[in-house]
């Protein structure tokens, strides 16, 4: 069975002899659109003319980003003058000779590199270049290509002088692990998602050397804060803007209030970086109370950064600096803000807006406070609208046709709810499940999946028989709940999983052990030793029974191997294997035939918080403290894909039912959906106000439910990329989510010691997904949590760590009793 091609391991780039090594395409590293002046490089994935054969492994849809703007982009910029030519019409209009112009641009670039912004502005004004090169360059406007044009012109001079590395102040310095761009004609439109394409006249030019860094150069990242403003004026600037926003019309106030937090952080960091420590402290104390409550954790980290030296190794700071904070604002509100800042000549704030914020402008009515509150809260603001535009195949794969036996003598095989191995069923074509192909499903061979073994087919037959006895759930027919309480779990229960047929339960513990219990009367047995196996008659019908060693039968098996707490556990669909992930940075694969460790997968350098098998087996995903998720195949010791883009720990990972996508929930308060085929991020969901700890896909693959420390459960429509519901009720972290087998009910388990059941059918019916909603992302969430809540079930003092629906729709819940 061929695994996914490891297609993205090499990037064909000629490395700079003295520069850093080229970055493999599957290396972690977000690629935020970080062009100068808030513009957004919209050159697409894949290679263009220059043959960089990679789509980025992560980031906001993996937008590639040139470390030095290629001359092709310079040629495409409307204002570029031919190098060494007699003089372009634009230059002639300004009355500057071509040669002088080249010199002038070189000086401007030098000033920018040396971070002498004010001198650069003065020189521009003197040379009357403002109208042409700087333009009216608004960070998010379609019609403001000025900043990009300047950047392109400067780069062109640099390219003429010889290949240069990215300077600390250059307009398009690399983001963390900046991804290579195609060397062909790059489309360089400005800010918003609906930017215009590049001029067609762009001729492919020869690119010198593309410098690729796999770590952000800290000094380059921080040097953006080098602009010297009068430190005493910062409080006045911020107060002035605050006063302006609070006095603006109600319809604009809610939208413009989004500016408070990112401006506060960047102004504080600018003061600290320029060593105005007292002013920074005073600024922080005066305004930190105005920020929204869900930013408190981030502000706590920020308050500890009081000296320039502290900023060098601080990941939160680097994240904030290198990923643009995204604000979604209506055009009217944006024009109001721009006019105010220009009238007041408030350059300090305008510079921050241009350099560090990505303003996603939309036409139409401004959003209400409620609409904005539903979507904000993540570390980097909202998702850009383009991030959720890619097509997602959310339908289910066609089930293989399996013949169900005619006879109904299945009682003897059902004493274990698992594998009836003794008796081969008679084959008959009756009852074969021939479903039509789902129009939203991915092609059957889009990713290679393992073929069904005979034991899998038997299991599917058992599953179908169980399905006929399944209880139809609904508001009038709620499931029974069976709670497994781990008593005296002084080792500290940290993870639980239950097999699909509900025959086994596994627990991961803080004492680094994994324990497996049999939930049915059938005890756990190991395979006999090699010498005993050689004596067995291999032709006998019950050979699978004979290979098991009765002397080893017990209800509990303990697996030793990890050297730290076990935070994640997952059974394979065929119940032959168990995965566990640990604080020791490894994922281990255990055999449930011999109860020994088969493989230790080492790829994460830090604790691995979660791991999960694909619904088809073979593939599995893991996520951890290193802020990336990795896709593995059981027979490869290296990951097949690395999903990079989150700004904080990846706390939970889940496969889509069709196995073509992986969802990850992170402490950066976002959920991302990744395409297994190419490693691209195809959805970014923002709205939670705390780290995300649980994910569940609906059985039909259309919807995703997410739970976080804010106690809310949010519901998402994957196809449209929209939030469609909010379930309020829990008072603590939602640790577990599970849909019933037919998707009628959603169960949620929390640290508040309750299991709650919600009406999923009602939550998803009559969804307002018209074109307008999809285009603008405006959502109106009904306040109907209480109507959807079907029941709340309390434990005495047991947080709910895991939930599971059996094949007949009985709920199994698990947790460790915690004495008060």
Description:
The protein has 820 residues and is of the alpha+beta class. Among the domains are: 230-367, Serine Threonine Protein Phosphatase 5, Tetratricopeptide repeat (Alpha Horseshoe), CATH 1.25.40.500; 494-815, YVTN repeat-like/Quinoprotein amine dehydrogenase (Methylamine Dehydrogenase, Chain H). Helix content is 24%, strand content 20%. It contains 23 helices and 29 strands. The strands form eight sheets. A four-stranded antiparallel sheet has the order 4-5-6-7, with no helix packed on it. It has a four-stranded antiparallel sheet with strand order 8-9-10-11, with no helix packed on it. Strand 9 and strand 10 (586-591) form a beta hairpin. Helix 3 (98-113) runs antiparallel to helix 4 (117-126) and helix 10 packs across helix 16. The longest helix has 16 residues, at 98-113. The two termini are 52 Å apart. 47% of the residues are buried. Its main location: nucleus. Residues 427-438 have a biased composition (Basic and acidic residues). Residues 1-69, 159-199, 404-458 are annotated as: Disordered. Keywords: Nucleus, Repeat, Transcription, Transcription regulation, WD repeat. It holds the Pfam family TFIID_NTD2.
